[in-house]
Amino acid sequence: MLKFFNLKLIFKYSFILFIVSALYGLFIRFNYAFPQVSFNYQSFLQGHSHVAFLGWGYLATIGLILHFFVPKELRNNNKYKILFSILVISILLMLISFPLSGYNLFSIALLSTFGIVSYFLTFGILKDLDNNKAGSNFIKYGLYYYLLSSLATWFLAYVIVTQGKTDLYYNTVYFYLHFLYNGFFVFSLLGLLFNIFSQQRIKNSLNLEQKVFIFLNIACIPTYFLSVLWSTEIRFYYVAAFFGAFSQLVALFYFIKLYNQFYKQLKWNWLTKLLLQFALISFFIKIVLQFLSSFPYFVKLTLALKPYFIIGYLHLFTLGFMSVLLLLFLVQSTIFKIESKVSKSGVLLILLGIFFTEFLMFGQGFSLLIKVGMLPYYNIVLFVCSVVIVSGLLFFFGSQFKEKQLDK
Fold it and tell me: Do the Cβ atoms of 275 and 321 come closer than 8 Å?
């Protein structure tokens, strides 16, 4: 396996996992539209989420970090080949274990293996990282936040054994997700974006970039309290959550100023620009929603309409921001291409599917909020949106075998 290892294969494998995760999501949506008595919803949901985060999100992100920030002679070291090989095998086995039986002993063993191996991978990258490259500070802190988020996975086992699924259990899960989302993914993806701009000689203000970095760091820990407001009325948590959410707004203000600088210099085609705009608009909406959720009134609303607002927010991040940016980076690094009509159609279908999925979820939440009730054929239309996303992924990935790939 080591002989045939290369990052291009890792990226293709991670994209296949993206497709598999989307298929799991499609199956879940199908069950909502056309309920099946024998369907194990929880097991498929766990498979869907773990494959999306670890298989697609983590593997693609950490692979891109290795590609852009670790010198070639170091990233070809056998240690990375061995570590990636173990991660690939563990995720492949998760594809089977979670849908069949959820959190059984085998699935927990696989997650533990993944976690331990990811530590070796993270420390290896931190050691080999080229600190002189643009965006390297974002990458380092993204990796630090990944290590912080992972602590929750070990503590979770203790909570389950001693207390069961109490408030502490759910707040521990939210700790993991918060620092994975707003720590690892946000910092790593922005670091990759700034590095790509630097490689393409796109100039922006280092002062503004530093301000974005500082205020996102200031915000990262206190915004965790946004995730625990549902379980407490202690004023300190609301103050800390508001402070963190406001700091994110300040970071967003400086990022918008940066965006105005670099967008004018982009020499990309209209479709790659659309990918960037789509991802950054999702990022903008995410931060605004987090700011609103720091107010008690909106906390109560989101809890009452969790299937729409909270699930919509999670998909906004994972699909609208994370997945679209990763797709853009894979195209910008010539690992994938958007040249044929099929690949372009695939990308447009992906974006359309994500847009209408978010529109439906948040639209349904607001409809219930203003007492309009359920939208007609909501679950069926949402299922159709999932079909559009999966079709786009298949079109795009299938087209890559017909387009000439550039060697690294």
Answer: no
Nearest of 18, 176, 21 to residue 98 by alpha carbon: 21
Phi, psi of 338 (to 5 degrees): -120, 85
Distance CA 272, CA 332 (A): 8
Q: How far is CA 115 from the centre of its chain?
A: 17
Question: Going by C-beta distance under 8 Å and a sequence separation of 6 or more, which residues neighbour residue 336?
Answer: 11, 15, 327, 330, 396, 400
Tell me the pTM: 0.91
Pairwise CA distance, residues 75 & 82, whole Å: 12
Half-sphere exposure of 193 (CA within 13 A, CB side): 29
Distance CA 176, CA 51 (A): 16
Q: Are 302 and 310 in contact (CB under 8 A)?
A: yes
pLDDT tens-place string over residues 285-327: 999 999 988 888 777 777 667 777 888 888 999 999 999 999 9
Q: Are 48 and 28 in contact (CB under 8 A)?
A: yes
Angle 146-152-154 from CA coordinates, rounded to 5°: 110
Greater model confidence, 96 or 388: 388
| Contact status, residue 358 vs residue 324, Cβ threshold 8 Å | no
CB count within 10 Å of CB 51 equals 26
Residue 133 phi, psi (nearest 5): -85, 150
Report d(CA 307, CA 75) in Å as an integer: 42
68 C-beta neighbours (distance < 10 Å), count: 22
Residues with Cβ within 8 Å of 318's Cβ and at least 6 positions away in sequence, in order, are 52, 53, 57
How far is it, in rounded angstroms, from Cα 115 to Cα 129? 21
What tens digit of pLDDT does each residue of 244-281 get? 999 999 999 999 999 988 888 888 889 999 999 999 99
